[in-house]
Each structure stands twice: as structure tokens, then as C-alpha cells.
Design goal:
alpha/beta; Rossmann fold; 2 domains; four-stranded parallel sheet; 9 helices; 18 strands; 26% helix
Length: 341
């Protein structure tokens, strides 16, 4: 049988670091020489091609336009490979995965993001297992010779998660990610056990990278001084706002807060309500404290993660600029599996 072909894209991050033998400092290794650093890859029945960003990007420096660069590489080389593995710093990996899921709609091949908590050159690194298994998943086919995974996903420490359902939950544990409202796509043990996932039978890949990045995120806390946050509600500077509210979507009945929301929405602004809880969903109107949102046009983000909410809002504002009703319709549906309806 012909070997499956996988493109490994290195954007930056801890996984691609080794110690300089002269200085001891961490530096990115040459991904053209990947078998030297990870000889176990030669035992996989996979034809690997590597593509490294000329200047590796620390994930804390990653911005939406760079999500677009990654998406464009996948789109332009889509016909040449059976799957794609993106090596990325873990800190903002969930943001990139969410962004890519909206940029690359209609995927029928896997796009797997992975990384590590320890550099690949460290003896105890988690990077080798993450990379090897991510490649194995990217190359995996089912009994009908179709890819096992046909979406953007994150593989980290034995679990494969839907990319736009995932958040980083630990700065130090190897189990750095969780998918609070959606089960894993696969779990790697002695065997890789894939969950049953339905995909559209016929879907054409599309690329859209023109995201609108001028959005704001406000996490509520008791006694938040709304006067200090009022400049964010300037529609000429902020096109959309995400509120991380309490519990199932609740917020204080502060008069200035309500005035800011009503004025902003009346001028064409978009506000999305998501819960700051680790799991669960927004239920606007369930309690009196959230009924104001329901009556005044705040959109329910249901069980969106913060990362997915930001990506979806940027996508909607870029896709339908100046059309708040179109964005309202967008948030009432699951575009690429990002929320539960």
C-alpha cells in the first residue's frame, strides 16, 4: 500500500526546542533533520514532509493573521497530503485551533495541532509521544479508506479533542488541555480508540481568513467599575464584545452597565454572553439577572469556550461586516461543531 503523506508544519513553541551544545540555551532545531532528533518516526509507515516558519513564533505572540498563514498553507497543499500536523506553542494553541476551524470549513482531512510542555531535547519530554501519535492520527484511515479524523483537532497527552471545544487548563501538567462540553475524539492507550463521529459526506473545502480582530473580552467580577470599561463600548473602535458572565449567563443589574449595552447594540455593536465557568452553558432569561440580556439583543454563546467565542465573533464580523442580524443568525447555529444547540 502507498504510504500516507503527512505535512508537519512547525510554527514555533516548546516542542521544537533543543539545547545549544555550546551555550546550553534553548533554540529551535532544524525540522529538515527531524529524524535525527526523533528517530522513532522512521518506524511509522508515513511519508513525512516538513515546513517550518522562517521565524518561529512564541505562541503568546500568535495573532489572527498568522492563523491565516497556517490555514493558507493547509489549503494550498491540501491535495498533496493525507493529513496535517501543526506544531504550536501550548499557551494559545486552543485559540489557533478554534480560529482554523472557522477558516477551513469543509475539511475532509485531519488538521492536528500538538505541542509539549517540555522541549523535545529534554529527557522527560512529552513532545515525542505527542508528535508521534499526532502523526499517526493524521495518517489514520478507516475501513473505507477515509480519514479517521476530518476536522481541526488538538492532540495532547493521550487525548484528541475537537479544536474549537478545547481550552488549556494547566501551565505545568502534561495533561494541559480539556474539552469541558464535548467528549474526546480519540484516546490513545495500547490502541488508539476513536469515537463515532459523523461527518458530511460531500463537502468542499473553503478558505476564509479575513477575520475582524477588533473585539473585546470582559470577564465580570463582583464590583467591576463599569466607568473604567466604558471606552470599550465605542463602536468605532470595538466591533464586538464578549462578556464572560457568572454561572448560566448572569450579570449585575448595574445601571451604567445596562446603559452601555443598550447604546452599543443600538449603534450596531455585537455582544455575546458566555459563562466563565469551566463547563456548562448559558441560559439567558432563566434568572432575572440575565433577562435584561435576552430583551436587549445580547447573543447567547451557549456552551462556547472563550477561545471559540472569540474566533466565531471575529469570523462573523469579517464575514458579514455591518450586518448584526446575520451575526445573530450565525450564533444561533453551530458552524463547525463549536457549540451544542
Amino acid at each position: 500500500m502507498q504510504q500516507p503523506k503527512v505535512l508537519v508544519i512547525y510554527t514555533g513553541g516548546t516542542i521544537g526546542m533543543v539545547n545549544d551544545p555550546l551555550t546550553g540555551a534553548l533554540m529551535a532545531f532544524d525540522f529538515g533533520d527531524i529524524y535525527k532528533h526523533i528517530p522513532e518516526l522512521a518506524r511509522l509507515n508515513v511519508e513525512l514532509t516538513t515546513h517550518a516558519f522562517e521565524h518561529p513564533i512564541d505562541s503568546s505572540e500568535m495573532i489572527p493573521s498568522q492563523w491565516g498563514e497556517i490555514a493558507t498553507i493547509v489549503y494550498e497543499r491540501y491535495a498533496d497530503f493525507d493529513g496535517f500536523v501543526i506544531l504550536h506553542g501550548s499557551d494559545t494553541m486552543a485559540f489557533t485551533a478554534s480560529g482554523l476551524s472557522f477558516m477551513l470549513q469543509g475539511l475532509q482531512k485531519p488538521v492536528i495541532l500538538t505541542g509539549s510542555q517540555l522541549p523535545i531535547g529534554t529527557i522527560r519530554t512529552d513532545g515525542k509521544e505527542n508528535l508521534i501519535t499526532a502523526i499517526e492520527i493524521a495518517a489514520a484511515k478507516d475501513d473505507n479508506d477515509l480519514p479517521r479524523i476530518r476536522e481541526v483537532a488538538i492532540y495532547f497527552e493521550y487525548s484528541l479533542y475537537r479544536g474549537n471545544r478545547t481550552s488549556k487548563v494547566s501551565a505545568s501538567a502534561f495533561e494541559a488541555f480539556r474539552s469541558p462540553n464535548f467528549p474526546p475524539l480519540a484516546v490513545a492507550g495500547v490502541h488508539i480508540d476513536y469515537s463515532a463521529t459523523s461527518y458530511p459526506e460531500h463537502s468542499e473545502l473553503t478558505l476564509f481568513t479575513d477575520f475582524e480582530p477588533t473585539v473585546a473580552l470582559i470577564k465580570l467580577f463582583p464590583g467591576l467599575p463599569w466607568k473604567s470599561y466604558a471606552p470599550l463600548f465605542d463602536i468605532t473602535k470595538t466591533k464586538g464584545i464578549i462578556l464572560e458572565t457568572f454561572g448560566s449567563g448572569n450579570a449585575p443589574s448595574d445601571e451604567l452597565f445596562h446603559t452601555l449595552i443598550k447604546s452599543y447594540i443600538q449603534r450596531g455593536g455585537v455582544i455575546v454572553n458566555i459563562t466563565q465557568c469551566a463547563s456548562g452553558t448559558v441560559e439567558q432569561g432563566k434568572y432575572k439577572t440575565s433577562s435584561f440580556f435576552e430583551k436587549n439583543g445580547v447573543l447567547s454563546g451557549k456552551d462556547l469556550t472563550t477561545e471559540a467565542a472569540i474566533s466565531k465573533l471575529m469570523y462573523g464580523l469579517g464575514r458579514t461586516p455591518g450586518q448584526p442580524e446575520a451575526i445573530r443568525s450565525l450564533f444561533a447555529q453551530s458552524v463547525c461543531g463549536e457549540q451544542t444547540l
